[in-house]
Amino acid sequence: MPEYGLVCSQLKKTAGRITMDLDFSVAKGELVSVIGPEGSGKTTLLRLICGLDTPDSGTVSIDGKDVTALPPEKRNTAIIHPDYAVFPNMSIEQNIVYPLGNRRLSKEEKTAEARRLMDLVNLSGVDKKKPSELTAEERFRVAFARAIAAQPDILLMDDTLSSLDNKTRKVLRNDIRAIQVKTGVTVIFASGSQEEALCISDRVVVLRGGRIEQTGTPEDIYRRPVSEFSARFTGEVNILPYDVILRTLRVPETERSKVIYQCFGPEHRLVFRPEDMVVNDMPGLPFPEFYPHLRFENAKIIRTEYLGKEYLVTAQYEDLIIKVYTVYKPASDYITAGIRMTKILEFNDGRLIRH
Amino acid sequence: MIDVDRIGSFNRKISVPGLLLLVVLILVPVAFNVLGGYGGFTTFFRDKAQLEDLGFSVLFALACSAASFIIAIPGIAIYSGCRPGVRKFLRAILAFAFFFPPVLMVLCFNNLFGRNGLITVLRIPGMYKAAIISAAYNIPLFIVMTGGHLRGLDLSREETARSLGASPVKTFFSITFPRIRPAIVGTGLLVFIRILLDPVVPYSFNDSSYSFDIAGKAYDLLLSGDRSNAITLSLVVMIVAIVALALLSAQERKRDSSAGSGPFVRRSRGNAFTFFLSIVYMLVICAVVVAPALGMIWTSLKGESGMTFASYKALFSALNPNWLVAFAFILIASIVAPLLCAPVSRSICIGLASNGSSSFLALLPLALGPLAISLGYSGILNHLPDTMPVRMTLILLGRILVLIPLQVMVILPVARRIPVTLREASASLGFRNGAGFRRTDARIMGPAVRTAIFSSAAMTVSVFALDETFGLNTVYAQIVRLSGYGDMVTSCTMGSALIIICYILFLLGIGHIREGETDA
Question: Does pTM surpass 0.80?
Fold first, then answer.
């Protein structure tokens, strides 16, 4: 049984068009990502946790202590806003030592602490500068160092990397993880990007319309999404109607009954990731045979997207649209792709029923 | 966040037509004032008593500004934190203080403090009466301007400070106050200029036969026919006001760049008692602003002749025809002057917003003050044939000069919020640079321009000094004379009619303001 740093119990809040209703917990020292589309309630959840908003009902407990009625400054949380909220009227050093104001430290001790934190977040030579002189990446590092200086029980990051370029995001997400591991601080990282969330988190929570859609390890979320929403939100996915199995199944006639169990009707879907598909993108080579599998022969290519290390090919097979990754650019307008039945998830009415 | 300072291909360093016209309009009265009053400068600065008067005037204006701000502090917090509907209502009430002509303000307060007033028993000395009125009538300016600025600041910095363990008090003094300080100082300087340049309030409530402030003394001298010394004094006051205006313009640069990306909801976490106190406070402030006007209307209705709405009509029909001509001129000027000003103000605002320059030049007429402007333009009469059309034209030019900064104060905040990207998008859609500017700006600034026209139309009737200097027998001049003769009923009737017209114009003006756009 993990020791919980944060427990949100039956938390309800109506804010604008979001109606939040969830139970949520985070173990101590864990980095949990909260992902979801815009309006799913990520920011509202973070604001409820740090006390900037009050819930309509339910409780928030930090380290076993009910903090629902406490103001933000009494909760020992720290939040980093999307714009980093670096105080413009203070130097970088003053920003970082701001949370130390509540402790009885001498000026030298504060300066030393600021230096230590700046080293921790890989920031140097900017201590006397003003925030307006810094790049967005540096401002993030200042906000991060300042939040760490407060020694919070929970560090909340609200879509903090969204305004940065892709390369900087990759660097910073690795830094966040490294510093989180080094300091042992509990982090809740809200993000609209599933890629970031999956690569740095111990656990991922998928939010939809103020409710938790799924929670689990990044691998669970990606490989075993519990709903079509989770599957779609966490990456490229093929979602096909169940009757496609009858048209595309490649399996000896004697084995067919072992594969086809039951057709649930029009809401029954087959879901699989494009990278799980096997594609015949080497002209002249025969398509690999394996049983049982679905095969989409001579699907007409309607779009090819170059992603650097591979291509994402969108093709039409009869009335179905499928997506596959290929290493080489397709040589013709047609492509043949297949997928093992073991890689397919089955959904009914939007929810996972078999994998 | 809107990038107002962005340097791009659309920057236009000079707004040629608007600023050029403004410079000409400013230079004319200043030149005539300098020519007419320069001789008295050396005498003024050698006269210790006059220097003391100047110092006293500055101190008086500073003290009144400070008192206004201190009283306005709770109002700033309440105004920035209340719901949009309540804020709109408060703005409509507090707006009284902006357009209210000093002459009418004096008349209204006469009902409270004057010979015929309600509070004569208190026997407050004249200077203190003037100080109380000057302070009271500038409280709404602090509430709306500073409260509006506070509301426009995004909350993330304060929220971060709270989450980092700072108490609300520490958060206010370390984060919020430094961010609103430029707005406080800026509004304070504006209030200071208003009080320093206003001769009417000190003049009207002075117990002795001589005014105690420099602007009032200049007015005394003008009435006694010593025009040269009046110009010298108005020039001295003008120099002090220009210094204050320069400081005010410097504050613009210090404004937090995140200002204006709101509106953000500042919610009060107070309890029922603080909510009750807030209501009481705002009721008192609204009463201070509105009650004198209502008192004046009441005086006109309950007068000895038993005034009723029907008798209003009878009164106006029985008035001297010259008064009706004067009334008609005021009304025509109220429509023509703002309409003539609007394209100029708009052009100036677009220029200032495009290149992020200081608004010092555009606001300079504020520092000149109506008295200096009036004296300057009336000086031209010595070189032109003194005919009624010439007088009317000069009065109109003077009004335009007085109104331009008022319109700029309404339009400029909106113009500064137009993102460069909108103009760029407009140009990329096939409009040439100039056309892109005009079309985009016209669509976005349209409501602000309409607000400016209506608001300044309400304000233009208050340029009493201009009409008085030209010896024009306007309705205000009549009101002052009637009031001086003790005929409070007739003067209050005339004043009430003007207040109602002004307020309707002002309500039409603020009706165009969209939430989060401007509190100027």
Answer: no
